[in-house]
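Good morning C.,

I know you're traveling, so I'll keep this short. The sequence:
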Amino acid sequence: VVLGIALSSGDDAKGGKSGAAGTSAGASASGTAKGGSGGAKGTDGKQTDSGKGTAGTAGSNGAADATDPSTDSGTGDDASASGSGKDSGAAGDDGAVTTYKSPRGYSIGLPEGWKFAYVADAGDRFTGPDGQKLLVAWTSTPKSDPVADWKRQESGMKRTGYDRIRIEKVGYRGWNAADWEFTSTDGGTKYRTVDRGFVTDPHHGYALMYTAKADDWGDDQRRDTWQTLTKTFQPAK
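The tokens, ready to paste straight into the viewer:
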């Protein structure tokens, strides 16, 4: 529930304006973590991210929506449900072995072991090895200040054991971006989440909410995964 997009005006994805029905940033609304291609040390939120309310940048409904990961209403079991994936069989220079192309116009490279899971109210959900998760949220009415929006959404954060690490502006491929990074617990396990919200143009705002077990946050594979996700993401044109 943390990935929402930090720059949106709170439109429901179903209405077409925001790609995720309540993207409130539960993780690092303003961007991702320093492990990624942007700057902050991203954290990852609950393993059981609830699709609602993820990153404030892309479709913000408020962090309050990002509290119960089990409430997501997802559809589809594989990439065919909401897009297509090309499997190259081997990782390229960017670390991706598959490129997921969303019917919403964006694309993202997925490392080995990652796959599209389903479409949720908050956006598109992906799963990776060892409990890693990614939520991609979007909006057609992005806000101009992702940092302020992440902080606004944080006031409604209700994740168990929530502890903010940072909310700050980050450099990310020339886009207006901010990271919201935090830790939370789920089922006795501590997770770290980084939610990167960014605006690519006046009509496209996105949030990449990446979560992994806190104990794995310093691993090279975890850092490489975040770098691959942030480096390969391509917005809709």
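Safe travels,
E.
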